[in-house]
From TrEMBL:
Broad class of where this protein is predominantly found: mitochondrion
Keyword NADP part of the UniProt annotation: no
Family listed: Belongs to the ATPase d subunit family.
GO process annotations (BP): proton motive force-driven ATP synthesis
Protein name (Swiss-Prot/TrEMBL): ATP synthase subunit d, mitochondrial
GO CC terms: mitochondrial inner membrane; proton-transporting ATP synthase complex
Length: 199
């Protein structure tokens, strides 16, 4: 049976009886038009390659994202390519209130659902560019650190073994081991001569 306002009308299909209304038909058809007739070619995601880049502590969020994406894709593919045609003449014969179906048909024909405006792609692209810059800077810094560490490693490979070093060799190889790095011998003698010996 079909329900229109307070009026209940019989509607028979080949398979079963069901309850519907002109309003629900319009709502359903407009939803179908919105989802199916504006269908765009979606980029296929390589989920395997994506999963390889996900750290273990974010695996749950990745699985939730994939499940949600699969559910949306399944819902989208289940919708027909074209909207179901409403049999307006049937409703004109079934609805007692004159002009009601014509008004619905006029409103449905004028219904235009705009395609959503993409407001996030530019932000994502900017974030990607910024991430690329920071990643490049990190790579360059890492290369500089590697060169520094290789220089230090070569110094350690080529230095005199510790058991053969004198104090002077140790201080030359590792300047930070000098007892007083801030004063030379001449400076320490002149400071004693000016200030006098400390008591």
């Amino acid at each position: 049976r079909a329900v229109t306002g307070s009026l209940v009308l019989p509607v028979r299909t080949k398979k079963r009886h069901f309850r519907c209304s002109v309003l629900s038909d319009i709502t359903w058809c407009s939803e179908t038009v919105r989802m199916a007739s504006r269908r765009v070619a979606l980029k296929a995601l390589d989920w395997v390659a994506f999963a390889e880049r996900v750290p273990p502590n974010q695996r749950g969020m990745f699985n939730a994202l994939k499940s949600r994406s699969d559910a949306i894709a399944a819902k989208l593919t289940s919708l027909p390519e074209t909207a179901t045609v409403i049999d307006w003449s049937f409703y004109r014969g079934a609805v007692a209130q004159a002009g009601m179906v014509d008004e619905f048909e006029k409103k449905f024909s004028a219904l235009l659902i705009p395609e959503p405006v993409d407001t996030q792609t530019s932000t994502i692209n900017a974030q990607e560019a910024e991430s690329g810059k920071s990643a490049s800077a990190y790579v360059e810094g890492s290369k500089a650190r590697i060169a520094q560490y290789e220089t230090e490693l070569n110094k350690f490979k080529n230095m005199i073994p510790f058991d053969q070093m004198t104090i002077e060799d140790l201080n030359d190889t590792f300047p930070e081991t000098k007892l007083d790095k801030s004063l030379t011998i001449d400076e320490s003698i002149s400071s004693v001569a000016v200030d006098g010996p400390s008591l």
